[in-house]
Amino acid sequence: MRKFWIVLSHSYLTRLKSKSFMITTALFLLFILLMANFQTIIDLFDQDSQLDRVAVIDQSDELFAILDEQIDQGDYNFELARYDGTLEDAEQAVLDGEYIGVLELEVDAEQLPVASYHTDQLSNQSVQYQLESQLQQIKVAIATNQAGIDQEVLESIYQPVPFETVAIAQADGTTSRTEEEISGARGLVYVILFLLYFAVITYGNMIAMDIANEKSSRVMEILISSSSPIGQMFAKISGIALLGLTQIGIFLLAGYFVIQSKQEELVGGFFEAFGFTDIPASTYVYAVVFFLLGYLLYATLSAMLGSLVSRMEDVNQLMMPVILLVVAAFMIAMIGLSTPEANFVTVTSYIPFFTPLVMFLRVGLLEVPTWEIAISIGIMIATIILLALIGAKVYRGGVLMYGRGVSLKDFKQALQLSKKE
Amino acid sequence: MTLIMNGVTKRFGKFTAVDNISIEIPEKQIFGFLGANGAGKTTTFRMVLGLIDPTAGTISWGGSPIDYERTDQIGYLPEERGLYPKLKVKDQIIYLGRLRGMDKNDILTELNIWLERFKITDYLDKKVEELSKGNQQKIQFISAVIHKPKLLILDEPFSGLDPVNVELLKNAVIELKDAGTTIVFSSHQMDTVEELCEYLCIMQHGKPIVHGSLKDIKRSFGKKNLFIHADFDLTFLKDHPGVVAQKLFPEGCKLQIESEAVSQTVLTELNDKGFVRKFALEEPSLNDIFIEKVGESYA
Fold first, then answer.
1. Would you kindly state where each structural domain of chain A is located, as residue ranges?
2. Do B68 and A400 touch (CB under 8 A)?
3. Which residues in B lie closer than 8 A to residue A418 (C-beta atoms)?
4. ipTM, 2 dp
5. Which of A247, A250, A171, A230 is nearest to A387 (CA)?
6. Which long-range contacts (C-beta less than 8 Å, at least 24 apart) are formed by A346-352?
7. Residues in domain ABC transporter (chain B) (predicted)?
8. DSSP string over B52-65
């Protein structure tokens, strides 16, 4: 047990003190800071330039005033300017860069607005859409006014229908998830999906790299003559897990402080968008459980594969299937987010490599019976133990094998080398 | 604690790497394993250490097989040298030493003594990859002996070193033996084995073809070497009865003779032939025994 801690602290500390770890962590922190201050940064650039101006040639004499008022009240990044010259002069002014476009306003025989927009920036469509929708509103107002409908009637026509979804209570008094709970869980599922995806790929790769590195530098033979390979494998997995928790912890802490400092801007923004406000505590517990089990499963798999290669170059090739598994789980979970009750989601939630993502999704979005969750966790734990047993054997034999490339033959040979007779 | 191998065999599929070895390695002695490449030395060591299990037979050290409970008493210098290239010498030895059950302060004290002894004190804070191959090997040696093991296994400890460093390491090995360590090592270099070992074993194709104490092996070999330096042509001695082989040098020749007695008849024959500068009867060298036993193909 003492040696377990020595290996654990060694793999944790050497990684923690390595330059690559510090750089990635720093880059991530920078990214978080940038994201948090995104709005401020955009504003900074926008303040430099003056508001874009659109020249308006108004033939009707009334429309400009109404449109200008609406644009002023709204939050647009352009303003209107009345233009008294001819259309040709205005177009020239646009080409000279004075305006971004010319809007020509007229009224037709029924006193309804007609407009044409002349610009040299056809790619920038937001201005013309915004102008168009504002004019549409003006047109509706004028038309209804002409038809003799008053403003209040109009508003009641456009009012949305009151529509409410009510969950029917079960016989035992429990209800299925409410709309708020589901959307909250959906947000959490998103976050866990990304975290697990990130963790498996980053830290799984790290474990495989570490082991391959010890093999290629041939220090492995000394290590396994000092302490048991199985203990070393799990010490390494735990050490990297600790590293992962440290790194994710740093990110979460940074995220927390950023949110704290930006509270006024973010209240009701971020959290409500993700719906984190209304989630049952059990969902958080399951998130942690499935995250740890998922990590352990993929880490054991990576450690086993890492002990099969003898050169660093082969690690990526060997990690490919692992990454494909994670990607498959990720895809199923992503599709499952909108159809959590689909058959394929239910079935795949029992397949151990998909369980951490897919079962968690079901737990978060549906009312899954406890025994189903227990079975899937049971299958996962059994798979982890099985993988650990095979992994330990392969590890023991694999570390003494120095071949080129990797094949199924190597796998068999590694098992043979470690055979107890 | 004696290391006893009893009928130890290791097969990899159809290939037999080690074939029925039964030897006893006495305590506090230096025991040499000799053999061509692929003779099964490294496999034997790995089985002794418990890294791989024998297909048949048993290995025991002080009555029971070596397991991870006792690895703190064992030192191992693998043939494939291996250290973490990116780690500093200090951190490296501390890690490996702690895995052998030492604590950090003892490791640092011992490490400084060893570095001083090998005259490489400047390398304490250097990364291993920055060191020359010879110096890396010294660090590797330190990592194998820093915890004062009772059983030390050295796989080809002197290969790739210059004569000065071989001498340094040899002296260290002798000192460890005097301090009570049982040392098992393998080598191609006959002269080092002859110099260091009291007991040895010559292996070929996984089989021990000769083993026992150096003295007994030489005595039972029977044949002797006769060195003659003379002014006249010595080729005629080739056909002298009792002469097994002759090797000519510019200043004379070396004869391999069946027994001591043959030397006297040779001496009689040389009478009156001319001036004889040197006439010496010598024990066979380990090299002679090795070549004879393992075959002319390997020298």
1. 51-158, 176-417
2. no
3. 52
4. 0.79
5. A230
6. A349/A376, A350/A375, A350/A376, A350/A379, A352/A297, A352/A379, A352/A380, A352/A382, A352/A383, A352/A384
7. 3-230
8. S--SEEEEEETTB-
Residue B29: how many other CB atoms lie within 10 Å: 16
Strand partners, B212: B200
Tokens encoding B103: 């604590």
The tally of CA atoms less than 13 A away on the side-chain side of residue B178 is 7
Of the candidates A213, A226, A400, the beta carbon closest to that of B71 is on A226
Confidence of residue B297 (pLDDT cuts 50, 70, 90): very low
- Nearest CA to A226 out of B89, B70, B86 is that of B70
Location of structure tokens 């200008």: A68
**How distant is the Cα of A20 from the closest Cα of chain B, in angstroms?**
13
d(CA A260, CA A306): 42
Q: Which of A10, A213, A400 sits opposite B52 (nearest CB)?
A: A400
* Residue B89 belongs to domain with CATH number: 3.40.50.300
pLDDT tens-digit readout, B210-243: 888 888 888 888 788 889 998 888 888 888 888 8
Strand-pair category, A113-119 with A101-107? antiparallel
- Backbone Cα Rg of chain B: 23
Q: Please list the residues that pair with B127 across neighbouring strands.
A: B88
Whether residue B148 is found in the same domain as residue B7: yes
Of B266, B269, B250, nearest to B258 by C-alpha is: B266
Q: Which helix (H) or strand (E) holds B281?
A: strand B276-282
In a domain, B299, yes or no: no
Number of domains in chain B: 2
C-alpha count within 13 angstroms, C-beta hemisphere, residue B99? 31
Structure tokens at A60: 């009707």
**Set of chain B residues whose Cβ sits within 8 Å of the Cβ of A222:** 76, 78, 82, 96, 143-144
* Rounded distance between C-alpha atoms, residue A152 and residue A166, angstroms: 31
Quick one: tokens of A35? 């994201």
Global pTM value:
0.73
pLDDT at A87: 84
* Whether residue B147 sits in one domain with residue B122: yes
Q: How many CB atoms lie within 10 A of CB B148?
A: 17
Would B59 be classed as within a structural domain? yes
CB contact (8 A) between residue A224 and residue B82? no
pLDDT for B246 equals 87
What residue type is assigned to position A113 of the chain?
A: P
Question: Distance between CA atoms of B135 and B81, rounded to whole angstroms?
Answer: 12
- Three-state secondary structure call for residue A52: strand
Q: In what order do the strands lie in the sheet with A101-107?
A: A78-82, A52-58, A101-107, A113-119
> Residue B161 domain-assigned?
yes
Question: Residue A355 is encoded by which pair of tokens?
Answer: 């369980």
Q: Are residues B132 and B189 in the same domain?
A: yes
Say whether B1 sits in a helix, a strand or coil.
coil
- Backbone phi and psi for residue B223, each to the nearest 5 degrees, phi listed first: -65, 150
On whether the CB atoms of residues A213 and A310 are closer than 8 A, the answer is no
CA distance A314 to A412: 18
Dihedral angle over CA of A22, A25, A30, A33, nearest 10: -140
Q: Closest by alpha carbon to A399, among A217, A237, A203, A235? A: A217
In this prediction, residue B27 has a pLDDT band, given cuts at 50, 70 and 90, of: confident
What's the CATH number for A51-158? 3.40.190.10
Which residue type does A90 have? A
User: What is the separation of C-alpha A294 from the centre of its chain, rounded to a whole number of angstroms?
Assistant: 18
**Do B233 and B129 sit in the same domain of this protein?**
no
**Cβ A202 vs Cβ A15: under 8 Å:** no
pLDDT band at A421 (very low <50, low <70, confident <90, very high): very low
Residue B252 lies in a domain: yes
B70 and A CB contact within 8 Å: no
Of A175, A177, A184, A190, the closest CA to residue A337 belongs to A190
